[in-house]
Amino acid sequence: MPSYDAHRRTPRRHHRVTMKGTERFDADGVKLEPSDVQTREQRDADDDQRILGELPPHWAVFNERGR
Predict the structure, then answer these.
(1) Are 35 and 43 within 8 A, CB to CB?
(2) How far from 66 is each of 20, 32, 62, 63, CA to CA, in Å?
(3) What distance in Å separates the CA atoms of residue 43 and residue 34, rounded to the nearest whole number?
(4) Mean of the pLDDT values across residues 40-67?
(5) Are 46 and 38 in contact (CB under 8 A)?
(6) Which three-class secondary structure string do you get for the chain?
(7) Fewest CB atoms less than 10 Å from the CB: which of 4, 12, 38, 63?
(8) Region (Disordered) spans which residues (predicted)?
(9) Where does the pLDDT of residue 1 fall: very low under 50, low under 70, confident under 90, or very high at 90 and above?
(10) Average pLDDT of 42-48?
(11) How does pLDDT run across 47-58, given as a tens digit for each residue?
(12) How far apart are CA 54 and CA 50, in angstroms?
């Protein structure tokens, strides 16, 4: 590598530094998720429970008419 010269006429080119990444991830479809082995009915029931848990308490379903 040549030594530094303050009177150099052409700028030195930047050398790109590349480092190996440390990220580790699972690509979609490679590993089985717990939801992959559930039936459609089980997924629907889980969704219903999740939605009912997220609703505010005043959102109730009344099956009988008040007297």
Answers:
(1) yes
(2) 68, 48, 9, 10
(3) 11
(4) 78
(5) yes
(6) CCCCCCCCCCCCCCCCCCCCCCCCCCCCCCCCCHHHHCCHHHHHHHHHHHHHHHCCCCCCCCCCCCC
(7) 63
(8) 1-48
(9) low
(10) 90
(11) 988 888 887 766
(12) 6
In the structure encoding, which two tokens stand for residue 44, read together? 């629907």
CA 51 to each of CA 2, 5, 36, 43, 59: distance values in angstroms, whole numbers, following the listed order:
68, 69, 20, 12, 11
Residue linked to tokens 């040549």: 2
Handedness of CA 39, 44, 45, 47 (dihedral sign): positive
What percent of the chain lies above the pLDDT cut of 90? 7
